[in-house]
Specification:
The complex is a heterodimer of chains A (569) and B (72). Chain A is α+β, with helices and mostly antiparallel strands. Chain A has 22 helices and 17 strands. In chain A, strand 16 and strand 17 form a beta hairpin. The chains are: A alpha+beta (569), B alpha+beta (72). The interface between A and B is medium-sized, with 41 and 23 residues.
Chain lengths: 569, 72
């Protein structure tokens, strides 16, 4: 069977092929970079016929490596105008791997107004199925209809009405392993809009009747390395908070260091942190019958996933994360977890990036459109996006567009993408990552919150960000960073996994080379798309305005930032 | 008193970093701040791990404890 399918959305033809030989050692983010570099005009309209939507799995997909089934959705971004790879958990990557599928490439634009879903059948064949009946549905209602039609054991990759309307901040939502709900988001960069531009409402993956068997060069070596890695993951202190709390466990620490953004990145402490911190979150879960410590995908041992219920014990949302809680919470002066869970559900259902939405709401508060801490006002703003009002459609263009339209000076975005939930004055390495990542402001591109560093000092931060961006780009070829990034502390694990799967001699430097190649391709794509060194810069207020809690500013210069990578930009 | 991650904590003469960590590991305000990856900063100075048993704290010190972790 082919492991790559190309779907022409104009002619409705589907062509199967094998992954090119020089693509074999790439997965996820690296595959996106390879295909875009080889096949897509960097100057193209992101929502036009020349752009492609790529859905692909990681290097270790199909194997029992924990986190191996986080997968990528990529294309040229309508939000940033540059290259974009957004990765996501859930069960679809695993189901694609069971079929032996490495990549789906959606090409061209439809010539009519018909919508389709791509169906991967039980026998691993692939077909386009008319989907007009699902147009206008958001992701939860859509999922229920798809489960009713195709059975409960399908995996779903879908867009809501935000994607249909081609909002720049439209996400692609994926079904969760724990609940089946579409709460896992490939949130960043508007890949939902690219999917919408091609009139693909969903990808439905039936469970493979015959599971694809991975061809290992040295299975014994691979399994031995994987066992060592699982032993480490299950005992590592650094993973404990992820399993026992989830990413929300970061709130207490980031809040105590004024890294957690407050009131549109004023750099202060949050005086209502007790309403959203670890204790509050765990108490809510216990009182309302929620759960945490759940896997979002089969085989994960970190299990940072959760289910959040209301006071009646009814499911509200899943995978409620640090970024969403903080950017819609403290960053908008809101400290109500029930409300934040409700907003997270709205974002997932509509299919929009909750990080971008949190920043948009904060910018609206900055402009005085609604008051700080106004929960009803926040709900109404998000409902404008749901209803597609004029202002809702402006919000759909992203934080930078809203800030510009409202005349706001303090707009936290880099390359058009809103900043994640870390203040770059008090976590300066993250500021370097925001400024220099080809993805725009993206904390997952190089998360510099590592032990033994004064994060408010500029010393060593450029190098730290560069090293972590290269390492993370490598991990982004493989699967979930929460799992796999920690494997670097065991220097023989990844080399032995690669040698066991593909053969050859590997050391950690060679493995990280996959990340370096990925970054070089991404930087070259962005350069051809028109980006320059001038774009590798934070919003001006971070350089001039002292963080309230610490008095720091972002003082790493453009000249210093240029040295972030050991290769030309 | 000393400040630890923004909280007031009682200080006594001769309190070392190691003794502080031992004491706070039983305090639920710091449960997820203290593990084998924890960095200790005193007044913005990162303290080497080997110094934890001998480094004395002074009244009024501002201390940050942070473990390795990520958001998502």
């Amino acid at each position: 069977m082919p492991n790559v399918y190309r779907i022409n959305t104009r002619t409705k033809s589907i062509a199967g092929e094998d992954l090119k030989k020089d693509y074999l050692l790439f997965g996820n983010r690296g595959l996106v970079a390879k295909v875009l570099s080889d096949e897509v005009n960097p100057a193209c309209d992101p929502l036009g016929a020349e752009n492609k939507l790529i859905i692909c799995t990681g290097i270790f997909a199909g194997t029992p490596v924990p986190g191996a089934h986080k997968f990528s959705i990529g294309g040229k971004s309508p939000l940033t105008g540059g290259i974009k790879e957004s990765n996501v958990g859930g069960n679809a990557g695993y189901q694609l791997a069971r079929h032996g599928i490495r990549m789906l490439v959606f090409e061209d634009l439809p010539a009519d107004d018909k919508w389709y879903l791509l169906k991967v059948n039980k026998d691993s064949t692939v077909e386009l199925v008319p989907a007009d009946e699902y147009v206008g549905l958001n992701t939860y209602a859509l999922s229920e209809k798809l489960y009713a039609k195709y059975g409960k054991d399908i995996a779903i990759i879908a867009i809501g009405t935000a994607g249909e309307r081609k909002y720049n901040i439209a996400s692609v939502m994926v079904s969760d392993q724990a609940t089946g709900h579409p709460c896992r988001a490939a949130g960043r960069g508007g890949m939902g809009a690219v999917m919408g531009s091609k009139h693909i409402k969903a990808v439905v993956i039936e469970k493979a009747e015959k599971k694809y068997e991975v061809n290992y060069v040295d299975k014994e070596k691979f399994m031995a390395a994987n066992k060592k890695y699982i032993d480490f993951l299950t005992h590592a202190d650094s993973m404990k908070v992820m399993t026992e709390v989830g990413t929300i466990g970061a709130i207490d620490i980031m809040g105590s260091m004024a890294i957690m953004p407050v009131k549109n990145f004023r750099g202060g402490f949050f005086d209502k942190i007790d309403g959203v911190n670890t204790k509050a979150f765990l108490t809510k879960l216990k009182e309302n019958g929620g759960k945490n410590g759940l896997p979002c995908q089969p085989g994960c041992v970190v299990r940072c996933n959760n289910i959040y219920c209301n006071s009646k014990g009814e499911y509200v949302t899943g995978s409620l994360e640090y970024e969403t809680v903080v950017l819609l919470g403290p960053n908008c002066d809101i400290a109500n977890l029930d409300f934040l869970a409700e907003m997270d559900r709205l974002c997932d259902d509509l299919g929009v990036d909750s990080m971008e939405v949190g920043n948009i709401v904060a910018v609206c508060m900055e402009a005085g459109k609604i008051a700080w801490g106004d929960e009803d006002g926040t709900r109404k703003l998000i409902m404008e996006m749901v209803e597609g009002t004029e202002f809702g459609r402006l919000m759909g263009k992203g934080t930078a567009a809203v800030g510009k339209a409202l005349g706001v000076q303090r707009v936290p975005a880099v390359k058009g993408q809103a900043i994640s939930a870390y203040d770059p004055r008090n976590l300066k390495g993250m500021g370097v990552t925001y400024a220099t990542s080809p993805m725009g402001a993206d904390h997952t591109a190089g998360h510099t919150f590592v032990p033994g560093v004064d994060h408010m000092s500029k010393v060593g931060q450029v190098n730290l960000s560069g090293q972590l961006q290269m390492t993370t780009a490598m991990v982004d070829n493989m699967g979930c960073m929460f799992n796999l990034l920690s494997s670097v502390s065991l220097p023989d694990v990844l080399p032995n996994l690669m040698a066991g799967l593909y053969g050859g001699d590997w050391d950690l430097k060679k493995v990280i080379g996959i990340g370096v190649q990925t970054l070089m391709l991404e930087k070259a794509f962005n350069k051809a798309a028109g980006f320059t060194d001038e774009d590798d810069r934070l919003p001006e207020f971070f350089y001039k305005e002292k963080a309230l809690a610490t008095g720091t500013v972002f003082d790493i210069t453009s000249e210093e930032i240029k040295k972030v990578f050991p290769f030309p930009s | 008193m000393i400040k630890v991650n923004g909280h007031d904590v009682e200080w006594v003469e001769g309190l070392t970093v190691a003794a502080l960590l031992e004491k706070l590991s039983k305090d639920d305000r710091f449960t997820y701040a203290i593990n084998s990856t924890t960095t200790v900063m005193i007044n913005r100075e990162v303290i080497p791990r080997n110094d934890y048993p001998v480094r004395l704290l002074q009244e009024g010190d501002v201390i940050l404890l942070y473990p390795q972790l990520m958001g998502g």
